[in-house]
Amino acid sequence: MAVTVSFLASLAKLLSGSTVRWIDCQPDTCQRIYFANHTSHLDALVLWASLPRELQPLTRPVAAKDYWDRGPIRRHLAKSFNVMLIDRTKVKVHQSPVEMMIREMSDRYSLIVFPEGGRSSGEEVGEFKSGLYYLGKKRPDLELVPVYMENLNRVLPRGEVLPVPLLSCISIGAPIWLEAGESKSDFLLRARDAVCRLREL
After folding, report:
1. What are phi and psi of 179, to 5 degrees?
2. Which of 39, 153, 191, 193 is the most exposed place for a label (fewest CB within 10 A)?
3. Helices (H), ranges, the chain
4. Count of beta carbons in the 10 Å neighbourhood of residue 122
5. Residue 158's Cα: distance from chain center in Å?
């Protein structure tokens, strides 16, 4: 399984031609929530592969179970990369995705999340869902780290199976936290702006 992970991570970096920029932020083993824009099925793999090797075993991508649990190849990939699969069809008050993420990450793992929910076209970053807000509220100790992923929607366009080798850029910005008294809507706007600003730096 380690061979699969190493090979696929190297392949993803090669096909995406990704360069990584750490802007006012440095790699760290502290627990973090990396939150990024979402335009391609390659996003989680490329972002995970772009982290320093010592951080990779401590970082779990979060993904939809209905997609990654469909077929043996996807299930194998999800298991290989220790993906945290969220069942969007069985959301309950005490078994919400946020509660599951907090339980599964414990005091060990960082997470990679995509607050838009589904993939966007890549032209604009969509509105953020509320999950990131509740993660910040329930675990105020976590660093919430914005990430902007550029060009991955062209490496693996929507509906395509085979990626097209192109250059992409991963920009990782300064951590933010939920501020005292900050409303959900204000925080989600601020978090989205933190991702969008990385596109301009």
Report:
1. -85, 155
2. 193
3. 2-16, 43-50, 65-68, 72-80, 97-105, 131-138, 152-155, 184-200
4. 18
5. 18
Query: Where do the domains of the chain lie?
Result: 2-200
pTM of the model: 0.87
52-103 pLDDT, tens digit per residue, is: 989 999 999 998 888 778 888 788 888 888 899 988 776 666 678 899 999 9
The DSSP output letter for 195 is: H
Hunting for tokens 């991508």 — which residue is that?
61
**What would the two tokens of residue 110 be?**
């960082």
CA distance 95 to 187: 24
The number of residues in the chain equals: 201
- C-beta of residue 45 within 8 angstroms of C-beta of residue 11: no
Cα 3 from chain centroid (whole Å) = 23
